[in-house]
Each structure stands twice: as C-alpha cells, then as structure tokens.
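Hey,
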Amino acid sequence: MMLVIVSGLSGAGKTVALKQYEDLGYVCIDNIPLALTGPMIARMLARDDATRYERLAIGVDARELPDEIRRFPQHLQRLQRRGVDVRVIFLTASDEAILRRYGDTRRPHPLVDERTSLVEAIARERELLAPIADLADEPLDTSAMNLHELRDAILQRLPEAARGRLSLLFLSFGFKNGVPNGCDYLFDVRCLPNPHWSPGLRALSGRDEPVQRWLQEREPVRQMLSSIVTFLEPWLPAFRAQDRAYVTIGVGCTGGQHRSVYLVEKLAEHFGPHFDPVIVKHKELG
C-alpha cells in the first residue's frame, strides 16, 4: 500500500491537494482520527479486494485532537511497521497569504472562536501541527501558488512520477521583497556588477539580450555562474539517487530583475538536458 498523509495549515490548500489525489485514482479520506488509521488500514489490507486500496490518501489537520497530533510520530512508526509505504506532505503558506485567502472566501478558521482572532489562530495552528510538519517528506509552500500551480506541484510529487526523476525549479527573486520560502539551495548574487546602474539597461531584464551581453562580459559574473554549477553538479544526482522528486534553487539579487534572472536562465540552460522537468520562474517579473 502507498499511503499519502496530507496535512497543513488551514487555507494552505489541503482540500485542493486531496482532490488532486482523488482525481489521480487514490482513495481519499479527509479528517479521519489518527487513532483509527491503523485499524482501518489493517482491515483494508486483509480484504479480498485489497488492491482497491493500493493507493490511499488521508487528510489530517487541526481538527484532530491535540494529544493525537503530538503522538503523530508513533502513529507513523506503527504504519511503517505494517509495511505501508507512507509519505507525508505538509502544506504551508505565509500568514499574509492565509489572511488574504480567508478574506476572499470568508470561511471560518477551525481554531477561531470568541477569544481567538484569525492571526492568533494561525500562530496557534502552526504550533499545534509542528509534530507533523517536522516529519514531512515533502513540505510545500503554497504562498505564491494558484489553484493550477498547486495541482501541478502535487502531480510532480507523486511517488510513481518521481521514481528515477528529479524536477528542478530555478527561481529568481529580489532580496528587497523578501526571501521566498521553500528553497533547498539559495544563492546571494548581490555582490555582482549591477546593470541597473547602466541607464540603457535599467528598464530591461536579465532575459533581454543587451543585459545578457553586459553580464557575460563581467568576469565576476562568469565566476559566480561557474561556482554555482560546480557546487550543484555532484549534489543534484545525489538527490535523484535518493528518489527525491523536487529541488528548488533560489538565486537572489537586489531587485530580482537583472543578475538573478540572467543566472537562473543560464543555470536552467546548463542543467536542462540532464533533468526532467526543469522549470524557470522569475518572482519579480510576474
């Protein structure tokens, strides 16, 4: 049996994730008490039609009893001892993203009451779900994702899709707007020469040929690109050998418009023939 435990903060997309698993042929059960999970799976495995339950996804969230959430490591160990192949996916998001989503939907947060504001409920939920988040095989930050991007991220993390494959996401960003969550590796390139100070290049981006030519002519830029490639080349295959499905590499400059964009494009160009898929995103370019 392949069991996926989907957990996460309210408003981070757990319902969407479970729906994606259901559409992919998984038997999905939301909000089942953790204490019932072991007996339920034992009965499933003993049935004559046990093959029906070869792929199972269950949702666990803050509606579970706090004591049971604290015992999550023990529940997980018992399932693994039964021979169940368990993967834990934990969906998170920034406070700002969750507040915005609740403002759009006007749904009640499960921990809000007459004494607890939404901001306090979010903080309390992060603390409550920490035992699950700490054991997640696939932490997934959905702050900047729309519905379709989240469904695609779940698809890329399927065990059967990930076997022998490694998806790379190269992400450029600007430090002045904050460091994105979820990066496995993060490179700061603010030390490099900056095309921003060249009047003819300021309005362009690192995808434009004049900016690329300007950067290619600078030795520090060439050295930085070479250093990042040299660092990543031995370690990305090591992730793939461990059946890791997804690695995110963030490259940041001051504004996220020139240097980081250029380097991300060059890194994707270098690693593209060796990994599938290779995704490029430029956070500040939209």
